[in-house]
Design a protein that fits this description.
single chain; two-stranded antiparallel sheet; rRNA-binding; elongated; KOW
């Protein structure tokens, strides 16, 4: 699944229990079409108790972010802080005397580069 969302983008949640909240993308799973967003969809994991090398106890309850589907988030436009769709613009750049095409992500709402 082709996702236009990358690691480090600021996104807003459009659906689910954390609807309306914003956060930074921690990880993108392109194969399953899911993203992990900082501070969103926090779940409690039970980990088995063990010992570290120094002898301290590890394990117990850990609260961490779980992945959500990429269709439930939208990139926040930096100009007006509202969710927007993304399109790509192809620019030709001249390098070493050759024309080379590069893609730039553009917010549909404002038309500015992301």
């Amino acid at each position: 699944m082709a996702t236009k969302i990358k690691k480090g983008d600021t996104v807003q949640v459009l659906a689910g229990k954390d609807k309306g909240s914003t956060g930074k993308v921690i990880a993108v799973d392109r194969e399953n079409g899911r993203v992990t967003v900082e501070g969103v969809n926090r779940v409690t994991r039970h980990t088995k108790a063990g010992q570290s090398n120094r002898g301290s106890r590890t394990g117990g309850l850990i609260v961490q972010e779980a992945a959500i589907h990429v269709s439930n988030v939208a990139i926040v436009d930096p100009s007006d802080k509202k969710p927007t769709r993304i399109k790509t613009r192809v620019e030709t750049v001249e390098r070493d005397g050759r024309q080379k095409a590069s893609r730039v992500r553009v917010g549909v709402r404002s038309g500015k580069d992301l």
